[in-house]
Write a structure and sequence with these properties.
The chain is mainly α. The chain contains two helices and no strands. The chain folds into two domains: 1-55; 57-91. The longest helix has 52 residues, at 3-54. The chain is rod-shaped, with a radius of gyration of 37 Å.
Length: 91
């Protein structure tokens, strides 16, 4: 066996070792990236469902806000009248 054959064998062996070492790191990375994509797909589906379920709430919340504004105004009027009654009764 001459030196050229020995160098070719060593080069191929080292190349195979480097490729296997890289594959040892890259295969788990690819696996976890795949799992992450599955989880993100599920998350996007859930967020779309939430958006669809929450869309009708906008009108209800607007109505509720208007009702609360009216209630606040009525309570302020009652508070004003109670203040007047307090002044009259305290004389």
């Amino acid at each position: 066996m001459d030196i050229f054959s020995i160098l070719v064998i060593w080069t191929l062996a080292l190349t195979a070792a480097i490729v296997l070492a890289l594959a040892g790191y890259l295969v788990p990375v690819a696996y976890y990236l795949y799992r992450t994509s599955v989880h993100l797909t599920n998350l996007v589906g859930g967020l779309k469902a939430i958006r669809g379920n929450a869309a009708p709430l906008a009108g209800h919340l607007t109505n509720l806000g208007g009702g609360l504004t009216v209630l606040r105004d009525e309570l302020l009027a009652v508070d004003s009248r109670l203040g007047d009654a307090t002044e009259i009764l305290s004389k």
